[in-house]
What we know:
7-stranded parallel beta sheet
Amino acid sequence: MSFADLGLSDELLKTVTDAGYTEPTPIQASAIPSVLMMRDIIGIAQTGTGKTAAFVLPMIDILAHGRSRARMPRSLILEPTRELAAQVAENFEKYGAGQKLSMALLIGGVSMGDQIKALEKGVDVLIATPGRLMDLFQRGNILLTGCSMLVIDEADRMLDMGFIPDIEEICTKLPKQRQTLLFSATMPPPIKKLADKFLENPKTIEVARPASTNINITQFVVPVAPQSFEKRKRLRQLLGQEEVRTAIIFCNRKTTVRELNKSLKQHGFRSGEIHGDMEQPQRLAELELFKRGDINILVASDVAARGLDIKGVSHVFNFDAPWHPDDYVHRIGRTGRGGATGTAYTFVAPDDAENLENIEKLTGQKIDRLELPAPAEEERPARRTRRDRAPRPVEVDVEATPAAEAVEDAPRARPARSRREEPRREQVQREQPRREDPREARNDDRRRDRRRPHQDETPDDGSWNGPIPDFLKVSFGI
């Protein structure tokens, strides 16, 4: 089957052919004709199967007939994350290049003023995250009464992120006579309940068993020690393989994402990071670096990387075993996309045994264990410490050491003393009696004589010490 057999317009077929696509994927072959027939659709498909084009292509043909009005979008696509919404917008720009369709992207982290201006001009396609859409709706900047088509993408992820109440409220604001398309990788009970409530006689299209993983992805479990530095050694050991061209590394926490990216850079890897604490421009900048090949390793959290469609990712690493088994399916789905092959490694510490059991139970397969040889000794990156910057003096009593006693002829080092000890030492020296040197005594006498030349230093004992008077002189005649 080719795209020409699906009922798309000649102009759109030319655009698809120019983009290099000749045969539709199973989800596209099953969904596109039904969407063109205005049927409600439940599409159950794993990530990387081309489901975005399964609703973008027929929407372009349907919306080609009609006219947009201010603040009243003609169609609405709900996405769980900013990144996935931006990728859907890229698909519309690529496939709708020959059509005169207007589009607006409502996501957080972007100026709300520019988004309001776009809505005031009127848009044919509105791509939004639930949070930003509800915000603008409550401000009165959007009217959903003219929306004739609704797409709920990544519905199971919407459930995980707590968006189901928002989606239910949004559905009540839309016209009852509309076409609704719901796509999800899994079909948990809350999503089934949502579909039963808001879809009219939907056609269910299932191209893969729920929660199954791509057969093009080779999966391994790597037993590791619980210590983070041991896990990092194993990760660097695997990243050093020649076949690792580009890789996405998933962590459960944002702090782990930042720390791991810093560690990889210190060891010479070209890595970047993406997580929920980053502003939208920062996320897009990191993704662009990864797509261009300026960096070939992307460390990511689940929320930030959900639904990323990046071609050529050869490996996925679960640095942390995912807490929810559904996340495992979505994580490893970043590789092996579009018919390509990929490899996924999941690090499992002893505490992750239950998580691994849930993953294997959900996917219905036993994942091969990979025992790695001990990693080679690595040269640690240079690291300046406070001791390197300011060495502290070490007090050593040389006379008390055995070495000084053994080598008596060697010159002894003067023991170091602190400033507190100096006054005490001077005081002791003053209190100890000094042995007088006659030469020093004479010098002291000379100095005193120079200071007091007219004073007699001899002590006064009350006797006469002057010259003998004449009347005391007695002459004896002989």
